């Protein structure tokens, strides 16, 4: 047996450096100084006698062996997290630390309803939040950087457990003086693909909107440029086009004080499924299902009328 065993902290530093590709950003994610992180990785290399990272002024490049060790380190850290989770799960549920990623098209609309409730009902819970796009959040979950993810389905999540919370209907939002303003709803064929504004690649809401419309020419012609729903609202309010947005955003008041009208999109797939997901066979499964119940109750959204 080797006379030296890497510490979990050293493995965390190594994984963070691989994830961020930058010593400063990796140190920030580990809540340590850059010198501390760098020294920890150098000590690991010195004690095992192997170079894991090639350092230059501008580039951080992992050696082939470094990449293999990072892959193993992910597994070790995940197992260590599960050991800690077993101990936490044996006590009172939803206490201690819980790390959750939330996608940007949910976080600003649902969290303001959830967080006050958690503070009141679960004061011993320390909830750490990360806002990430769906793919990044899934990777964070698989690597053990977070414990669960609040996202919208359908999305290929792989071998993860999930709890469906509710369906979030999709609406078409357009300038209030649009002459094509229908009385109650909008069918996909009524959408002018040359004026449709969507979120940029990486946001699953873009894919949900395109799937709901089910028109290949929209996928080819729609302008995908918005970095957030708030940006899209400003663009629509200034007469640059129309967009598709979820009910929870409208119910939260996103269209208040704008000259924008919203109508339900009439389509078989005109909704997204909001869900909480976590790693399969997690010892904290009961906690996550309890959290899902709290999320479901907190999301008791007011009914959205045909106009907003």
Automatic annotation (TrEMBL):
<dbReference type="Pfam" id="PF03466">
    <property type="entry name" value="LysR_substrate"/>
</dbReference>
<dbReference type="InterPro" id="IPR000847">
    <property type="entry name" value="LysR_HTH_N"/>
</dbReference>
<dbReference type="InterPro" id="IPR036390">
    <property type="entry name" value="WH_DNA-bd_sf"/>
</dbReference>
<keyword id="KW-0238">DNA-binding</keyword>
<comment type="similarity">
    <text>Belongs to the LysR transcriptional regulatory family.</text>
</comment>
<dbReference type="InterPro" id="IPR005119">
    <property type="entry name" value="LysR_subst-bd"/>
</dbReference>
<keyword id="KW-0805">Transcription regulation</keyword>
<keyword id="KW-0804">Transcription</keyword>
<dbReference type="GO" id="GO:0032993">
    <property type="term" value="C:protein-DNA complex"/>
</dbReference>
<protein>
    <submittedName>
        <fullName>LysR-family transcriptional regulator</fullName>
    </submittedName>
</protein>
<dbReference type="GO" id="GO:0003700">
    <property type="term" value="F:DNA-binding transcription factor activity"/>
</dbReference>
<dbReference type="InterPro" id="IPR036388">
    <property type="entry name" value="WH-like_DNA-bd_sf"/>
</dbReference>
<feature type="domain" description="HTH lysR-type">
    <location>
        <begin position="6"/>
        <end position="63"/>
    </location>
</feature>
<dbReference type="GO" id="GO:0003677">
    <property type="term" value="F:DNA binding"/>
</dbReference>
<dbReference type="Pfam" id="PF00126">
    <property type="entry name" value="HTH_1"/>
</dbReference>
